Structure formats: structure tokens, C-alpha cells
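The instructor's notes for this session suggest beginning with a concrete chain rather than abstract definitions. Hand out the sequence below and ask the class to guess, before any prediction is shown, which regions might be ordered.
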Amino acid sequence: MSYCRKKNWSSENEILINNQIGLELYASHAYNNLYSYFKSDAVGFNGIAEYFKKCSDEEIEHARQFMDYQN
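After discussion, reveal the predicted structure:
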């Protein structure tokens, strides 16, 4: 069942956008895992950790933009 409010929006488009949102969130999660790994005391590469944190934040922002567009 479609929850999309746009009358001119096909179910296929809705599915494609939802899939992209999932990919963006997955990428954010993967970058966040890398951030956590490099930030740990055992590894301690804070500069690399911050790079992956930025990447994670960027991907979550992409997901939110797609969510706003979809809604």
C-alpha cells in the first residue's frame, strides 16, 4: 500500500526513492562503523575517524533529503 500523497507519483517511483533512502542509510551506518573503529583507543586514528564521521553525516543528510522529497 502506498503512503505517498502525490497524485502524479507512480508506485514504481515511490519504491525507487524508498530503495535509495535505504541505501543512503546503509552507507551512513557503514561509515559510522568505520568512524567507531578508527576512534577506538586500540586503533586511535582520530583524523581518519573524523573523516568517516563526516561521510556518515553526509549520507544521513542525503537520506533526509530524499525523505523530504518523497513526502
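Then share the key points. Helices lie at 11-39, 46-70. The chain has a mean pLDDT of 91.
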